[in-house]
Amino acid sequence: MLGVGRLTGEEERSVAVIPEYLRDFLLAPRFAVLATIAPDGLPRQSVMWYDVLDQETILMNTAVGRAKLDDLRRDPRASLCIADGYRYVTVIGRVELIEDQERAQADIARLAVRYVGEEEARSWIPQFRAQRRVTLLLRIERVLAHGFAGA
To answer: pLDDT tens digits for 37-50?
Structure first.
């Protein structure tokens, strides 16, 4: 599916998978904002580490007890926005929760290496191991991009 709309005078494109022209942007370790649906129906936003698993899946991770996790247990719909100045990518879909601790701990370690480097990540691992973690897999239903040449 490809839909085109208007935003600030430029084209915005909507597709169901991550297009190749966005891959380099998404592979850089930028912070993302995850939006979930709170119990009152209003959006709740959280700054997140993320990684691209494939063209259809974004990986994130959180600790048990966080409000975003409660939101996703109740309603798996979510969006993730990654911005850099006037360029941004928004990914919309449903989140699958992976509660297996071996997998979740491996995933948070992977994210830590991506964002802070291997040496510093090693110092964070004991803190993560003391937590019960959950991996979040955002299964992409729509990708919106703005500000990219060749879009």
So the answer is: 999 999 999 999 99
